[in-house]
Amino acid sequence: MAGINLDRLASSYDYELPAELIAQTPVVPRDSARLLVVKSPTVYTYSVFRELPEFLQVGDLLVLNNTRVIPARLYGKKSTGALVEVLLLEERQNNCWLALVKPGRRLNVGAEIVFDAPLMRSEIPELRARVLAKDDATGGRLLEFEVPGGVSFNQLLEHFGQMPLPPYITASQSQPEQYQTVYAQRLGAVAAPTAGLHFTDELLKQCRQQGIEQAYVTLHVGIGTFRPVEVENITTHQMHGEWVDVPASTVALIQETQSRGGRIIAVGTTVARALEGAASDGELRAFSGKTELFIYPGYRWRIVEGLITNFHLPRSSLMMLVSAMIGRQRLLDLYQVARDQRYRFYSFGDAMLILPEAKIA
How far apart are CA 150 and CA 166, in angstroms? Predict the structure, then answer.
């Protein structure tokens, strides 16, 4: 293996996880999740999420992702009566959505899907969509929906759609709002920014009272975040673009924080991608558009100094992003600690706080 950079190999981000450590439901209250605090390159400690303010400093800035998950999973039938499952990914133009479909091989251009509304939930008896094109990049389809006058597509989704819980959550009795952050506002994500699920309104208030400020960006979480890295050489992996909005008010607050020596703590990998994407030329500017930024070891951080994150799937771009902050082997060692301590993994699982002192140069 001499001369091979393990940081660049997808197989180097593998680890074994017992099925019972995959969280099926969120803890209640949200801020009672466990927190693994990474204090330095060699020191970590155990805590709970509600104690987060104890590890931050007056003048620090938490940056949060205010995206809101849409009920993006739909169930319908083809004209033949065959069942079809649809996962919306992103709106490409008015009422035209890129979507993953199952089964997809026989869903050809021109095919029509009819979605039935759940009983007693809508006066609109059905929703229809037609396949406009295939999408080679995702293996999905571009669907054009028929939207009756007087209603919006988002209103239709509230009736016809279901919350798109990840496939590894198989036995959850959670309520839809438990898969939203308490500060979720801007509709558009197909998966939750899970690091933020641990915050309560009370904890956010406590942070502010202790001089820890907050700012918001939007990254509509899509297939780019949760699709696995399928190539062995991760430098050849192409991220699917996700829509980002970093407003001028957030840029100003970040610059003010930096000028007085405060630290920028990203709440989640999506915030890290949003901020670093908006500073791709070295300087942070207000930005609205798509980012395809893929962060992996060797990346030079421009804005983000600390990170709150969950425990992610093997071979995921999210693991690679966190490895870029603290090193791949360090991350794998911490994951082993979390498994030994029976931490809960993935979307509804526990969290890790990486303080700026733990970040590699």
Answer: 32
